[in-house]
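Quick question about two entries, pasted in order.
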Amino acid sequence: MSGQETNNGLIQVTSNHSFESTYEIIKKTLDANPNIGILAEVDHTGNAKRVDLELPKTKLILFGNPKLGTPLMQSSRTIAIDLPQKILIWEADGKVFLTYNDPEYLLKRHGITDKDPIAEKISGALATISGKASE
């Protein structure tokens, strides 16, 4: 993976593709996984434009796998504020980035101590998904 950083519970990956290509790669990767469903897409740039404001290219995809997320919520209902999973695709200074929550950070944030294997599985899936954009 190119340019992966972790900061304040966020993992950031630099894409090797254009904004549009990165967005489509992420969507296709999510759609190809039968365990994952895309729940919503938010075009922050388009929303800003509707009120005559400018925002560089910024989109958010919300997606989830209830088989993994539900056990986390069973341990601590407050983690639902951070679920479903999200990937933010954004552009700055000619570069495209993907940012998402570190699942292990979320477990700590919500005091979940008995679900490390689930966090590891989610972490692996997120790394695979974001890694497609840096291939």
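Here is the second entry:
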Amino acid sequence: MPQITEIFFDCDNTLVLSEELAFEACADLTNEILEKRGISDRYTGDQLIQDFVGQNFRGMMISLQAKYNFDMSKEELEGFVKKEEDKVIAKLVEKAQPCVGATEELEKLAKSNKYHLAVVSSSALRRVQASIKKVGQDKFFEENMVFSAATSLPKPTSKPDPAIYNYALEVCKKKPEETVTIEDSKSGALSAIRAGIHVIGYVGSYPGDDKKIEMTKALTDLGARVIMKDWSEFQDCLAQIEQLEDE
């Protein structure tokens, strides 16, 4: 059986605690779009996380149009995508923190030199790079080993579409069965599973035990092979997947 040689990492709320900051910025723009169309509903950052976690802003806007039955021109959408990216990056550069324990595990992996490492995110490339740089994780990834569904592909997409994982596998010259990814959202896990990649579901960034239990079930039901509650469990989770590969 193939050995694990590649580890992919989702970024938002997996490596860097960025979702809450990003959704704060998104809520302002989402409400501006709704107001412009005479729709009375308004979102807070938390409500957006409930509805759209794991999607990038472009994906969220497509879902929003479907939910409220309106159309947005390509030009208007791209204008808002750019505006959102700038707002979010400003917040991240000011306030982003690493997920507890993530940097320490990256350090161990870099020292072991056993695996190739890459970041595979739905978010815009500038945003992912700003996030990992702010928390000092950029040094663990070669410059061209940060992949973005919003930026890296010829046609922008968002997880759960597997396109970004398929692209990352192609660039890294890896097979799905020799690859593990760490994902915290349903859309992220589904994207990797559709690409045939082993998933470690990470629930450590979710607030409260109830949400962690709910997400453990959701990620397991989708097909995550192992669930990780804290980054300190990472080596054990990886060993479990490697054992599955040996059987």
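Reply: The first strand starts at residue 6 and ends at 9. The CA atoms of residues 160 and 187 lie 4 Å apart. Hope that helps.
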